[in-house]
Amino acid sequence: MADNQNCIRLGAALRMRRKELGLNQVQTCDLAGVGPVFLYELEHGKATVQLDKVLAVLEVLGMGLELKESRDVLSAPTVTGEETP
Known about the structure:
- The protein is elongated.
- α2 crosses α4 (51-60).
- It is built from four helices and no strands.
- 53% of the residues lie in helices and 0% in strands.
């Protein structure tokens, strides 16, 4: 559930930035080299998108992607009978 909310928040932020810049979806697509369906889905929080296309849209909008450490660390369960490298 939290992942979906993050996707929706990202899409909303991108849409807001695009509008701040005075760009419509077609102009943004042309500049980023993506299709209108992709941009629509991205702006509406689709969780499965291509990273290279997301980065292209971010670049057009003068935005970037930043990674930071999270307090939550995921770990995989240990499977018995398998060796770890």
